[in-house]
């Protein structure tokens, strides 16, 4: 299937969805406490969707039962919210998607709870920064795997981490998951041209140990095979009609982080 190219009006609808995602993830980050369950966090997100009159991208997606993915410690992605009580020192990854006017936004954050192991903090910091490096590299006129190379080379420059092989980023628009699939590793200069109107979700998933994963018997939760802890960050960004990027799921459009990396964001969206 061809890559969906969005016009400015469609990107503005995606921005509305992206802001719902940004505000909801901020709400979860500000609200999460030791003793809560991941179902409690899912309920916060349900209420947030109602408040903004938005729909969930996740609930019902191939039968997924919840509006967030909540993955704790050695669970890296796709965890189903449950009655597990959040403990001091846990590493929690929350993935969330929203639909406004038929258009999707998708983002994820990892959060350290209470007294965080410095090695877990570094894992999260490396994962988040690799996402920004990937977005900064995904420029108009470049090639898709420029993103992959930027993500991987940043992670590898920071230490020994497992970069998940079977999961990656994706195109996004009138469906949550669209072409192209975006690997978090590989050599740059390959794949489709990056052009205005593309919207891409960039989402590195890394562990402190192996890149190898398995899916639990709930058919969703992805854990590292060596039970090392994982982190996951994601943003949806677009290349605007002026050729400049705009991060649809960041409150400031990615201005602070991308300007630090020498990239100017679009002011059209
Ligand atoms: Mg995604």
From TrEMBL:
Gene Ontology annotations of biological process type: proteolysis
Span of domain Peptidase M24: 13-239
Cellular component terms (Gene Ontology): cytosol
Annotated signal peptide: none
Keywords: Aminopeptidase, Hydrolase, Metal-binding, Protease
The keyword Metal-binding belongs to this UniProt entry's keyword annotation: yes
One GO MF term attached to the UniProt entry: metal ion binding
Pfam families in UniProt: Peptidase_M24 (PF00557)
NCBIfam families in alphabetical order: met_pdase_I
HAMAP family reported in the protein's UniProt record: MetAP_1
Identification of the protein by name: Unannotated protein
